[in-house]
Design goal:
It is a single chain. The chain is mostly helical. The protein has 2 domains: about 70 residues, Rossmann fold (3-Layer(aba) Sandwich), CATH 3.40.50.1000; about 40 residues. It has a two-stranded parallel sheet. Helix 3 links the parallel strand 1 and strand 2.
């Protein structure tokens, strides 16, 4: 299951066996539904995703592996500077979202 277009089929074909079923242009809901169907049939599902569009399927899966795609276009120095900034932005966003949710909850109660 991939959100990529079918034009990338040959690139993916080299990564999987010939009999593998490849599904392209899949929405986040389609990925989530696929994981749920596999689980209902008794399968244990491992999902590997590289973006926010995979979040639902990653959460639903029995094992979720989130990776960040990297083409190697940054120097180690730039990556060393950007990594802490990235972590900081995630923390700020999470704190902001938690504060907003708490205020919304307070507004709903009051």
């Amino acid at each position: 299951m991939s959100g990529d277009h079918a034009k990338d089929r040959e690139r993916f074909r080299t990564l999987f066996p010939d009999n593998a079923q490849l599904h392209f242009s899949q929405s986040p809901l389609a990925k989530l539904g696929f994981v749920e169907r596999l689980q209902r049939s008794g399968k244990v599902v491992m999902m590997v995703g590289d973006g926010l569009n995979d979040a639902g399927a990653l959460r639903q899966s029995d094992v979720g592996v989130a990776v960040i795609a990297q083409a190697g276009g940054l120097s180690p120095l730039v990556a060393a500077i950007l990594m802490p900034l990235s972590s900081f932005s995630v923390v700020v966003f999470a704190c902001g979202a938690a504060t907003w949710a708490a205020r919304q909850e307070g507004v709903a109660e009051g």
